[in-house]
Each structure stands twice: as structure tokens, then as C-alpha cells.
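sry for the spam today, last one i promise. C-alpha cells for design, 323 residues
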């Protein structure tokens, strides 16, 4: 009964978070403002929205190709199209249940390529670790470039940037320590942590063993450049956001990226978080909220379409393997 409750909570709590932030967005705007937000969205420049979608697709294709380097180093030779389809299925799965995409990816490759689930999952965890490092680098750059704004917002004028980074690292280490302490006290959680690090270990070993390290680094950088680019080009969809600086875009990107894990695909909280950053840079409320919903909706629509198609294409394209 307890485990069933946890499963239900994992599914519905993120949905609740998304609905809560949608409610906050509605509550903090008048009817006229909401009409103006919808007007901004409907009259945005769709050419740049399409460009943003294309850039997003390119990042996903690069991620699928990059994954092959890790799998090849472990002795597996999966087909590129299966890797691509598994990526889109993973993103679609995350829209339904947060963080379920890793399981979906490993399951697809196990079923259609015969790669043991634990090994495939381990490479995905290692991949996520690398991406987390990239996000941390971008976060640090964003804190540096936007330090004056953040300092004035949070009354940190007397604190140096280096001290801010030290505090951030200290809090991060403290959270990890608490997580491990709780894991020690909770046997089930302790097993999950141990299984996570076993998979992570195998994935990291695969990274060090693989021959195409330079290509892996190239694709990692390319993926994150595409992420930033698909966010950046949205500034040209609305006249009011033309003047946004790179610093503002970078901070909005970081806030949005962090918020993605809070609800199903960032629904509600992603547009809200991005709009707060743009408002702090002097962009009026209506185009700021419209900007957030445009970038979120366009990328979500892309995942819904390509992820759904992947579900149908995957068994068809691999049909001969089962004959």
C-alpha cells in the first residue's frame, strides 16, 4: 500500500506543481493581460519558432549519435535509427512521468538491440552526469555575467562572486551528504543509491575506454550550443524581446533548464520561471510570459509529434528482427 502511494505521488505530484504554476500565472494577470499574452503568441514570428524546433531536433540527433560512442566502447553496435527513436521516446516518456525517459531509452535498446538494461542504463546515467557538468558550467557563467542583477535582487551587494560560488558549492555538497545519510537509514533507498552508482561506474568506465573521446566532447558541446541556440532565437519571435541581451537569455535558459525536472516536461513552471527572468530585465509582463510559453510549447509539440511517431515506427522498422 505504501509503495503504491509512492508511485501515485511520483506521477501526480509533478502534475500538481505544473497546475499550481499555471494557476499562479493566471492569478497574477488580468483578463486584458491574458488576452494580450495570447495575442502575442498568435502573432509571433513562426519562422523563428520553426528554426528553434529544427535546432532542438539537431540536438536530439546529436545526442543519439553521441550515445553510440559509449555503447560501442562496451562492445555493442546498435543501429543509429534505434538510438534516435529511443531518444524521442524517452523525451515523450518524461512528459508523462518525470525522469522515466532514462528507463524507456534503456528498455528500447534492450528489446531491439539486445543490450543488457543495466549496461544501457549505466551509460545513460554517465551521459546525464556529463550533461550536469555542462549545465553547472553554464550556470556558473550565468551567475558571473548576471552577478550585479542577482546581487541587487537578493541583497548580495557586499558579497563577492567567488564567495557566492563557494556558498553554492557548500550547499550542493550538504544536500548530497543529507541524501547519502538518508540512504543509509533507508535500506530501499540505499539499494537504489548503490545500483545508481554501479551503473554510473560502468558508464564512466565506458567513457574512458571509448576511442572517439574528441568526437564525444564535440557532440557534447554541440548539443548544448543547440540548446542555447533554440532558446536564443525565440527572442526574435516577439518585437518586445528583440533587445534581450545574451546575459538575459543565458539566465532565462538556466532558470528554465532547472525548472524542467520539477513538473512533467516543465509544464507551467518553465514558462513562469523564464518570464520572471525577462521581467527582471525590463521586458513587460505580457511578452515575457508569451516568450516562456512559446519556447515551451514549440519544443513540447516537437517531442509529442516525433515521440509518438517513434512509438509506431520502432516496431515496424525492426520487424525483420522478429521474423
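last one done:
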Amino acid at each position: 500500500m505504501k509503495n503504491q502511494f509512492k508511485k501515485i505521488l511520483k506521477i501526480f505530484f509533478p502534475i500538481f506543481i505544473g497546475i499550481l504554476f499555471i494557476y499562479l500565472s493566471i492569478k497574477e494577470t488580468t483578463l486584458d493581460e491574458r488576452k494580450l499574452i495570447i495575442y502575442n503568441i498568435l502573432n509571433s514570428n513562426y519562422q523563428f519558432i520553426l528554426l528553434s524546433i529544427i535546432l532542438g531536433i539537431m540536438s536530439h540527433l546529436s545526442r543519439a549519435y553521441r550515445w553510440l560512442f559509449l555503447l560501442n566502447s562496451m562492445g555493442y553496435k546498435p543501429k543509429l535509427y534505434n538510438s534516435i527513436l529511443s531518444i524521442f521516446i524517452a523525451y515523450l516518456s518524461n512528459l508523462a512521468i518525470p525522469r522515466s525517459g532514462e528507463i524507456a531509452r534503456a528498455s528500447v535498446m534492450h528489446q531491439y538491440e539486445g543490450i543488457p538494461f543495466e549496461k544501457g542504463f549505466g551509460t545513460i546515467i554517465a551521459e546525464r552526469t556529463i550533461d550536469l557538468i555542462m549545465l553547472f558550467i553554464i550556470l556558473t557563467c550565468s551567475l558571473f555575467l548576471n552577478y550585479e542583477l542577482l546581487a541587487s535582487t537578493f541583497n548580495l551587494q557586499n558579497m563577492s562572486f567567488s564567495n557566492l560560488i563557494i556558498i553554492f558549492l557548500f550547499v550542493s555538497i550538504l544536500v548530497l551528504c543529507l541524501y547519502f545519510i538518508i540512504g543509509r537509514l533507508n535500506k530501499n533507498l540505499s539499494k537504489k543509491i548503490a545500483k545508481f552508482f554501479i551503473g554510473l561506474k560502468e558508464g564512466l568506465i565506458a567513457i574512458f575506454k571509448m576511442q572517439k573521446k574528441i568526437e564525444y566532447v564535440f557532440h557534447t558541446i554541440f548539443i548544448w550550443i543547440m540548446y542555447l541556440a533554440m532558446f536564443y532565437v525565440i527572442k526574435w519571435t516577439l518585437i518586445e524581446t528583440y533587445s534581450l541581451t545574451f546575459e538575459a537569455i543565458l539566465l532565462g535558459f538556466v532558470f528554465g533548464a532547472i525548472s524542467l525536472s520539477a513538473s512533467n516536461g516543465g509544464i507551467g513552471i518553465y514558462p513562469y520561471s523564464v518570464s520572471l527572468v525577462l521581467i527582471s530585465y525590463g521586458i513587460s509582463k505580457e511578452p515575457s510570459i508569451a516568450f516562456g510559453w512559446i519556447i515551451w510549447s514549440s519544443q513540447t509539440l516537437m517531442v509529442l509529434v516525433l515521440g509518438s511517431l517513434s512509438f509506431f515506427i520502432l516496431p515496424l522498422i525492426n520487424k525483420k528482427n522478429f521474423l
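The chain has a mean pLDDT of 80. ok im logging off now
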